[in-house]
């Protein structure tokens, strides 16, 4: 709240304001404030251009303040002061640097006013009255400045972020369209080695109300990169609830470890689809196309899984446009295993795991955490129900079982 001023104080303040905007007094004020700021904030001290911008900011703030010192408080953020906030944002500085500037200035401004009022003679208003008035106006001005500068800082950060995301998204889209591009230049701009092996993923949230969906998805993307012993992934926001990302590795990665993320994916209500790893720009494009195809299958699944790998649903992707024919094939190939009975579901899971492990009983047992004789018993039961060995018609049987695993048994 502004301190009321007597007529004598206002008269003295008008004289002070006229003198304060002169080059000499302004320079003294800037020197006193900015010397302390530079001394306390290494980020500014190490950047000569930023120091110059600081001087311009302090100079403009001082002149705006003293010009309004004897009138009703009407704050307007000077352009050079806004430039300081924008410059810090563009340099990637934390908001804390900006706040430190004003904390350091706070002390120096009070010290400057103290020096001014210490020189008052008997013809001037009482020292305490003048200091109290000047300081109350200065605090109000600085508080308004900090609020406006925080808003300016974050607006600039958001524009920079949106601009960087837009440039990155357009470059990725150009690569996906097959537009001619300098691979080395694109790799540098994206900070992503396009000549390495590319593993493409799509992550999306199934919770439309999740306020922190972006943070969740980016966390998962970084976890995937760590699982593949890779640096940070290249990420692109595809929509409000889904992200595309690529992980680059010097050699072909094994995606099996991604399954370890299923617990976190379930907890955060995030789904993940992946393409098959392939080298170079062609792998970048092909893997993304496969991840999109796997995502399409997952989105239409009755029983969606947290992780959908293209390699597991490739055949389903190929027949996705013929649902009626596919269901007839499923009933024809594995009709006896199509029921909703728990035991039949167990048999289907065992056979699929057996196929995924190249018909290796020991590996199947280890993955299912059962004895190998249990696996052999289930496989024998499945063959009896099917009416032929699992080595016959393997491709169609596997396709049918993968269909059931995602979409449930078709109606008999």
Automatic annotation (TrEMBL):
A Pfam family cross-referenced in the UniProt record is: RsbRD_N
Task: Report domain CdaR GGDEF-like positions.
Answer: 180-297
Domain PucR C-terminal helix-turn-helix, first and last residues per copy: 347-401
Q: Which domain of life is it from?
A: Bacteria
Positions of the RsbT co-antagonist protein RsbRD N-terminal domain: 28-165
Entries under Gene3D superfamilies matching the protein = PucR C-terminal helix-turn-helix domain
- Family that this chain belongs to: Belongs to the CdaR family.
- Name of the molecule in the record: PucR family transcriptional regulator
State the species of origin: Streptomyces aureus
Q: What is the lineage of its organism?
A: Bacteria, Bacillati, Actinomycetota, Actinomycetes, Kitasatosporales
């Amino acid at each position: 709240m502004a301190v009321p001023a007597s007529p004598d104080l206002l008269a003295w303040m008008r004289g002070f304001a006229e003198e304060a905007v002169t080059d000499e007094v302004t320079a003294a004020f800037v020197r006193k404030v900015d010397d302390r700021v530079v001394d306390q904030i290494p980020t500014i001290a190490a950047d000569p251009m930023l120091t110059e911008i600081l001087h311009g900011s302090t100079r403009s703030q001082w002149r705006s303040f003293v010009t309004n010192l004897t009138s009703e408080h009407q704050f307007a953020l000077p352009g050079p002061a806004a430039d300081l906030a924008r410059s810090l944002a563009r340099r990637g500085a934390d908001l804390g640097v900006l706040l430190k500037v004003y904390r350091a200035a706070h002390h120096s401004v009070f010290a400057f006013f103290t020096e001014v009022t210490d020189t008052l003679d008997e013809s001037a208003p009482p020292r305490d009255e003048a200091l109290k008035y000047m300081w109350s106006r200065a605090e109000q001005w600085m508080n308004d400045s900090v609020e406006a500068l925080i808003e300016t800082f974050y607006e600039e950060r958001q524009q920079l972020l949106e601009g960087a995301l837009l440039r990155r998204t357009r470059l990725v889209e150009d690569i996906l369209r097959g537009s001619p591009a300098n691979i080395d230049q694109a790799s540098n701009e994206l900070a992503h080695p396009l000549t390495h092996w590319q593993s493409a993923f799509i992550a999306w949230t199934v919770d439309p109300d999740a306020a922190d969906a972006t943070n969740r998805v980016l966390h998962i993307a970084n976890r995937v990169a760590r699982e593949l012993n890779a640096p940070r992934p290249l990420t692109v926001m595809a929509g409000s609830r889904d992200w595309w990302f690529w992980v680059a590795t010097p050699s072909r990665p094994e995606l099996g470890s991604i399954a370890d993320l299923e617990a976190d994916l379930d907890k955060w209500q995030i789904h993940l689809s992946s393409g098959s790893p392939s080298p170079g720009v062609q792998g970048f494009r092909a893997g993304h196309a496969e991840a999109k195809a796997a995502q399409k299958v997952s989105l239409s699944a009755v029983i969606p899984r947290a992780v959908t790998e293209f390699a597991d649903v490739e055949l389903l992707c190929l027949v996705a446009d013929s649902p009626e024919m596919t269901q007839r094939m499923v009933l024809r190939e594995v009709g006896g295993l199509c029921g909703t009975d728990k035991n039949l579901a167990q048999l289907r899971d065992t056979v699929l795991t057996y196929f995924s492990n190249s018909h290796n009983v020991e590996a199947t047992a280890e993955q299912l955490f059962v004895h190998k004789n249990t696996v052999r018993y289930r496989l024998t039961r499945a063959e009896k129900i099917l009416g032929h060995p699992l080595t016959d018609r393997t491709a169609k049987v596997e396709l049918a079982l993968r269909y059931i695993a995602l979409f449930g048994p078709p109606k008999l």
